[in-house]
Amino acid sequence: MPVLAAASVSGGLAFLSHFLCTDNASQNVLVSNTPIPLNFHFSLSQSCSTRRPAFLSAPRVSVSSGSSTSTDDGVDQSFFSDEVRQARRSADWRAARAYHEKGLIYEGRIEGYNGGGLLIKFYSLLGFLPFPQLSPSHSCKEPHKTIQDIARTLVGSTISMKVIQADEENRKLIFSEKEAIWLKYSPQLSVGKIFEARVGSVEDYGAFVHLRFPDGLYHLTGLVHVSEVSWDLVQDVRDILVEGDEVKVKIVSIDREKSRITLSIKQLEEDPLLETLDKVIPQEMPLDSDALNASDHFDIEPLPGLDTIVEELLKEDGIDNVKISRQGFEKRVVSQDLQLWLSNAPPTGDQYTLLARAGRQVQEIQLTTSLDQEGIKRALQRVLE
């Protein structure tokens, strides 16, 4: 019997080289997991094909039971010599490195879990899939369950994953379901595309949001940076977004090499300032040339602090006149502090438009100057400092 075992392992090692030259058609497919008796005779005359060698196709984990040790195929490993067992493990580590280097998808069985992740069978080896490397579809499907409860329901099932670390020396075999899912669903992404999404974790710098795909599941996760959450001044992302919130997001950028998606919520809303005050001027006030001239006949009380800024601007070289032309009120409070903006509206001759706002009140300021936009920005920066 030991002789047959040694011969079988030798056949497995021979077929490892057969596996390593598998063509592209077979890279993302694993075939039969049916256990093969140890005395099965392999044909060494076959050329490279799309079928994995049966000897390596049945993942096994050694389980100690009394004085003997057996694998999941029921073979008593006490008949194996240490050399045979080591040869088998070395062959499986080589296969793991091949999966890692070629980026192949592995259909792995979940054997169990611990406090940090799932235990995955890979032939005679036992690998690890950390909880953060799980697809968000599991937690979004059952949002009220803890990650431990979700892990318990996954035991015994098979999921798609990629090998992201295969370190034989340190005995580290790490898997990621997220990386496998990225390969499948990222081709459906494009900049500017809008998704229904669900908020996951919320951090100081932004929120991680799970994208819902046409099948109704949340497969990929992107980041909404704090600057892309709202047009309002955001002091704390948690004041606006809470885990579990349903939102709409727009894809801003995609880094396919690093599997990263940058998202925006505010770009699906209009900038409350836009380029002029046309959308916040009271409806009863006509928006024509007479309206602008009418502002000469009444005084607009400057926003608190604005009169000082106007005085300082008039001291800047190249600025000839600064005048509040009209005012309006926004639907929401953007900030209680005074904010000053240079409008994107094109200048009329040597006249540029500034926008000042505090609370709901917005005032439009006409700046007569010989400076260009960059010169105005530098002048504003000096004054505001």
UniProtKB/TrEMBL annotation:
One of its GO terms (cellular component) is ribosome. It comes from the Eukaryota. Gene3D superfamilies: Nucleic acid-binding proteins. Keywords: Ribonucleoprotein, Ribosomal protein. It holds the Pfam family S1. Residues 103-178, 192-266 form the S1 motif domain. Coiled coil: none annotated. GO terms for molecular function: nucleic acid binding. InterPro entries: NA-bd_OB-fold, Ribosomal_protein_S1, S1_domain. The keyword Cell inner membrane does not apply. PANTHER family: OS03G0844900 PROTEIN. This is 30S ribosomal protein S1. The lineage of its organism: Eukaryota, Viridiplantae, Streptophyta, Embryophyta, Tracheophyta.
